Amino acid sequence: MEKPILPKTVTQVVKLYDPRTWREKGLWWTAGLFVVTYLLVITILAIFWSRSPETFDVREKAATLAGGDGGDGSDAARLVTGTYTTAAAIGIAETLLNKPGGYLSNDMTPPGVFLDNIPNWEFGALTELRDLSRAMRNEFSRSQTQSIEDKDLQVAEPQFSYDSESWILPSTESEYRTGVRAMDRYFARLRDDKTSDGQFFARSDNLRSYLAVVEKRLGSLAQRLSYAVGQAQLDLALAGDPSARQARPSGGETENKTPWLEIDDVFFEARGYTWALLHTLQALSIDFEPVLTGKNALVSLKQIIRELENTQNPVWSPMILNGTGFGPIGNHSLVMASYISRANAAIIDLRSLLEKG
């Protein structure tokens, strides 16, 4: 029986997928070299993109936004109360969007889709940015409860609250860039000559309201970090108020422990939040300097900033260690919790100072 004669194109296709053809022409080596090169490039990018961003200078950022380089007094003279805090918010948002690899939390392709440390860092920084933009909209830009919201902050605050993992239609990046543009307009309006166009009120009650939110954030992060080694905790939810009630009863003692695979997630979320908070407090120390000096509280804020700077020290280990007790292996989560707890205690003291007449 004669073999059927295949068309020339079909024959070529059959030969192309014939392993003997690949061996004869060295295609296996070519394919292997391509795969190895691809994996090497992905690995290098993953390592490069996984580095936490460096801090930026708030004064220099404000001067740049004002059209100067921050190198002379004329640029600083054009910066009014509130411009440093606004510049800090813009700088945090731009870092999230423009750092190496860009914004990674919504990536659907390698290597971003395989990374988790930087996306958790991004979420921590984003949480602080959301708190700051909300405080600017509801507190800093309003003189009293019956005053009208600023038109640009009314746009920026909900934009930064958009879903942090939206990939498309619309993408997270496009929504956040809209928020940055609104902040840019607010920054420009603060500096123009129109008396009723854009305001920022540096008052002690405004600052106290913002610090109250920070206090709760830091307290939560410190607790979550301490759960890395497990912690037995008594129920203190209703302590101090005999008439207090809660929705459902809870046990007298609970055991909390972070799953092993989530320890680094909590660590980098805390690192991202404290990174953003560091810049915000540096800006507030400038915009609220007269208020803080009048309360003799400026040095307290500077000490908080110093504690937060310690949270950004380099991590020399290739992974987040989780040693127990006083064992031979360190525990990065507990070290971070220590810095955060000290900063939180100082914030509580600072709020007390601001409440005094």
In words, what does this structure look like?
- The chain is mainly α and 357 residues long.
- It has three domains: 16-48; 57-201, no CATH class; 202-234 and 252-357.
- Helices cover 59% and strands 2% of the residues.
- It contains 14 helices and two strands, in the order ααααααααααββαααα.
- Strands 1-2 form a two-stranded antiparallel ribbon.
- α7 (117-140) runs parallel beside α11.
- The protein is globular.
User: Can you tell me the residue ranges where pLDDT is under 50 for at least 5 consecutive residues?
Assistant: none
Shape: globular
Strand order, largest beta sheet:
1-2
Count the DSSP helices: 14
**Residue share in β-strands:** under 5%
Which assembly state applies to the chains in this document?
single chain
What's the gyration radius in Å? Answer: 27 Å
> What is the distance, rounded to the nearest whole angstrom, between the alpha carbons of the first and last residues?
108 Å
- Give the overall pLDDT as a whole number: 84
Sheet bearing the most strands, described? 2 strands, antiparallel
Give the gist of this structure.
The chain is an all-alpha fold.
Features:
59% helix; two-stranded antiparallel sheet; 2 strands
What layout of secondary structure does this protein have?
Layout: H1 8-16, H2 19-25, H3 27-49, H4 58-65, H5 73-77, H6 83-98, H7 117-140, H8 153-160, H9 172-191, H10 204-226, E1 231-234, E2 253-256, H11 263-287, H12 289-294, H13 298-310, H14 332-355
Antiparallel strand pairs: 1-2
Helix pairs in contact: 4-6, 6-7, 6-9, 6-11, 7-8, 7-10, 7-11, 8-9, 10-11, 10-14, 11-13, 11-14, 13-14
